[in-house]
Amino acid sequence: MGLLGDALLVCAMLAAAGLLSGLRGRRAVLPGLRRAWHWLARRRAAACIAVGLLAGGLAAGLGAWRGIPPPVVTDEWSHLLAADTFCQLRLTNPTHPYWMHFQSEEVIHRPSYQSKYPPGQGLFLALGRALGGQPIVGVWLSVALACTATCWMLQAFVPPRWALLGGVLAAISPSILTMWGCTYLGGPPAMLGGAMAVGATRRIVRQPRPLWGCLLGGGLFVMANTRPFEGLVVALLLGAVLLHWLARRRGKALGVAVRCGVLPLALVLAAGAAWMAWYNYRVTGEPLRMPYQVWAKTYGIGTQKRSLEWMLFPWVREHPPGLPDLARAFVKRLLEQWAFYVRVPLTLALLPLVGALARRWLWLPLTAWLLLLATMAGQYTRGYPHYTAPAASLVFLAVVEGLRQWSAACRRSGFGTWLASLTAPLCLCALVCFLAGWDPTAQRKLDRARAVIEPYITRLPGKHLVFVDYGKRQQVAFEWVYNGADIDAGRIVWAHRLGRRRDRALRRYYADRSAWVLDASHWPPLLSPYVEATGGGAPASGSTAAPSAGLRSVAPRGN
């Protein structure tokens, strides 16, 4: 659903709120629903569980409706490699003797073979594969936990009924359910860590308990293992809050704060740091060297002039942009994040916040997002929504606080109360309209070409080796060569062509497999038998139909 559809829904909501507020006896409208809402909201644990069940059920329902999504972008393949590794009870994999043929974007091969990303998303995917047989189950679980943590976090800032509303808004968000709940990119785990950390920080400041310190450490640990750079921004902000709180403690109060807040936090962080050092050591051979750093050094990223931006974000431009460029990038990132999290329906809820920025704790989401957008403005890549996932729960805090402002400002007429009450139904209607026109296959054909061709090869008997030839049109976004954790055990092994001599050596290594050459420089891609005498094969003449039809016409009788 586009912005015009969102605007029409908002107009309908405003008209309905005005009509209902003008009716007498408005409190008698849907009294059972109102009482049930308040009853559930007062039971805080039950409310959080209900939000999680709603989010997980919707995500799983979309999966049952649209089918298990195939990985498309390079990040998803990389996370799935980590999941496959963890499912085999290993932290990493040995380097393959012919690893040069298997180099892929977002993957390292030396000193070991593993994803370049932190292991958080891979662990969730591995858990989903262990529980439900498919990695996507881990995505659904992470969506449910992220929305549950968001509701729990909101309960520390706003009254229970408003916290429940914020949790429901997160659970029915079209973007979270489709762009995160139907992909393997890894936004929900970072959102989970951010919500845990923010909610625990608020509770520590209000009444320190060892549990809150442990949950704060757990949230920071999750962020460090999912989105470490963006999570660092949120962590520094929360650290400033805690330092300010500690500076105001005196005597016995300071001792309680250290014993019930700081000490449990330090213990959890120490355990988490030890685990991360062990993981880094197993993957890279050095406790303080992340796999991402190995990937950056191996493939020449971040080897230019070492400015502060390069040290914090290795993927930024070679030359620092000027102020006009930064301003344009900042606005662009802001619009991208607005289109993902808020759009037109929830923008209405944010309007009252303009006059209430001095309200206590409202500066927290504002500061976090300003810092995140400022750091993203100079990055070379786009500001993808999962980059800001550690601060996603703060969006719903701002939305709920805005709705509370509406309700308080229009208390006498009842317009604000009805406006807040109709927000969740409005977002649910937006979700239904979005799904009615949502086509998850609306990607460029080359993005999903492997998802079309791989099932065909799998149906052929035996094992297979596929040499991928990009010609002169190779693009990183259209990478084909991704394999599992145990490359030799895979039914299909995908490999780059590196010249006749090297290809012949790999062919001899996999002598028990049928060998193919895939010409990925055309659409549809052309598959032909590998001919060792010439180092390749020629596709059958006239093979210009859809991929599946073209593949049938070039299938070998034997190899």
Question: Keyphrases for this structure?
Answer:
single chain; mainly alpha; 4-stranded mixed sheet; two-stranded antiparallel sheet; 23 helices; 59% helix; globular
Task: Give a verbal description of the structure.
This protein has 23 helices and six strands. By secondary structure, the chain is mainly alpha-helical. The strands form two sheets. The protein has a four-stranded mixed sheet. A two-stranded antiparallel ribbon has the order 1-2. The radius of gyration is 26 Å and the shape is globular.
* H/E topology pattern: HHHHEEHHHHHHHHHHHHHHHHHEEHEEH
What is the arithmetic mean of pLDDT?
80
Query: What are the low-pLDDT stretches, counting only 5+ consecutive residues below 50?
Result: 302-319, 538-559
Helix segment count?
A: 23
The spatial strand order of the largest sheet comes to 4-3-5-6
Name the helicity range.
55-70%
- Quote the distance from N terminus to C terminus: 50 Å
| Largest sheet features | 4 strands, mixed
Radius of gyration of CA atoms, rounded to a whole number:
26 Å
The strand count comes to 6
Beta fraction of the residues? under 5%
- Structural class call reads mainly alpha
Principal-axes shape call = globular
List the helices and strands and how they pair.
Layout: H1 3-22, H2 31-42, H3 44-66, H4 74-87, E1 107-108, E2 114-115, H5 120-132, H6 135-154, H7 160-171, H8 174-180, H9 187-206, H10 210-224, H11 228-247, H12 252-284, H13 291-298, H14 308-312, H15 323-341, H16 343-350, H17 363-377, H18 392-409, H19 415-421, H20 423-436, H21 449-459, E3 464-469, E4 492-496, H22 500-509, E5 514-519, E6 526-529, H23 547-554
Parallel strand pairs: 3-4, 3-5
Antiparallel strand pairs: 1-2, 5-6
